[in-house]
């Protein structure tokens, strides 16, 4: 029986660089350079990520974002754990120091959010209290040693209560790879495996190399039928993320971006 919560890998990649015919051509999709993004800050992609990962399918639910420790640490301190999501940090550190740090930051984040909410409530005009309040997603965090345990805890602590929304994997490469390996071995418990990908290229490089230098790569070189994937339609991707995705290239600054989707078959 299919699991009600598909696992969606959400990732931004730059295509493989073009090579001369005499050189070896690489097909690897770049996702990182020296522990950070290879390209300049892209507002279009960042706001897309924020909307998609924080917007639950129904009121009263909360989406989960699964990530490695390095990805968690890459989030600005004042923003972590990310609001209105369940941040699941996967780490091999079993000493407890990572867990202590994440849960300590969770307390501080909740306190800052509560203060901000109280200030906003106090600033409301008379009569606003009669407006029906929307049930907001919670801000939570858990620390686990593996992706398998991440999915198990999400199912038990949130899924069985009906409050788990969508489940995303947001990086890095090892966690993406773990998800793909689990799916291949049947370890996702009937979950569909999807990829929502933002392609990033340099603007105005016609017939040249519009990719960015990378030293970290997405663990799948080809997302096509030959490698067991199918390209999703724009309508399907729009349904997955909860907003319209047309699959067209869009310009921002010195780059162009395109949102597309794939599903493992």
From TrEMBL:
Q: Which Gene3D superfamilies would you find in this protein's record?
A: Dihydrofolate Reductase, subunit A
Give one GO term, molecular function aspect.
Answer: dihydrofolate reductase activity
The pathway where this protein functions is: Cofactor biosynthesis; tetrahydrofolate biosynthesis; 5,6,7,8-tetrahydrofolate from 7,8-dihydrofolate: step 1/1
Q: What is its EC number?
A: 1.5.1.3
Broadest EC class assigned to this enzyme: oxidoreductase
Name the GO cellular-component terms.
Answer: mitochondrion
Q: Which InterPro entries match?
A: DHFR, DHFR-like_dom_sf, DHFR_CS, DHFR_dom
GO biological process terms, alphabetically, are: dihydrofolate metabolic process; folic acid metabolic process; one-carbon metabolic process; tetrahydrofolate biosynthetic process
Give a single Pfam family match: DHFR_1
Which keywords has UniProt assigned to this entry? Answer: NADP, One-carbon metabolism, Oxidoreductase
Q: Where is the DHFR domain?
A: 6-264
Q: Which family does it belong to?
A: Belongs to the dihydrofolate reductase family.
What's the protein called, per UniProt? Dihydrofolate reductase
Provide the species name.
Penicillium antarcticum
């Amino acid at each position: 029986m299919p699991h009600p919560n598909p696992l969606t890998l959400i990732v931004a990649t730059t295509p493989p660089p073009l090579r001369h015919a005499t050189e070896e051509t690489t097909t690897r999709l770049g996702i990182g350079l020296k522990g950070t993004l290879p390209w300049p800050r892209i507002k279009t992609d960042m706001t897309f990520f924020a909307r998609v990962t924080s917007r639950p399918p129904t009121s009263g639910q909360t989406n989960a974002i699964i990530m490695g420790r390095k990805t968690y640490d890459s989030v600005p301190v004042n923003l972590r754990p990310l609001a209105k999501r369940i941040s699941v940090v996967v780490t091999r550190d079993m000493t407890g120091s990572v867990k202590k740090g994440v849960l300590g930051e969770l307390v501080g984040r909740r306190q800052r959010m509560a203060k901000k909410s109280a200030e906003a409530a106090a600033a409301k005009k008379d009569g606003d209290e009669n407006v029906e309040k929307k049930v907001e997603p919670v801000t939570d965090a858990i620390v686990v040693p593996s992706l398998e345990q991440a999915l198990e805890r999400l199912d038990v602590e949130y899924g069985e209560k009906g409050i788990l929304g969508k489940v995303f994997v947001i990086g890095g490469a090892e966690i993406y790879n773990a998800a793909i390996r689990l799916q291949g071995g049947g370890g996702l418990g009937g979950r569909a495996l999807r990829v929502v990908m933002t392609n990033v290229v340099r603007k105005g490089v016609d017939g040249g190399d519009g990719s960015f230098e990378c030293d970290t790569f997405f663990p799948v070189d080809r997302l096509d039928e030959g490698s067991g994937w199918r390209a999703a339609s724009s309508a399907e991707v729009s349904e997955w993320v909860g907003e319209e995705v047309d699959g067209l290239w869009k310009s921002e600054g010195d780059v162009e971006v395109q949102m597309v989707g794939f599903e493992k078959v």
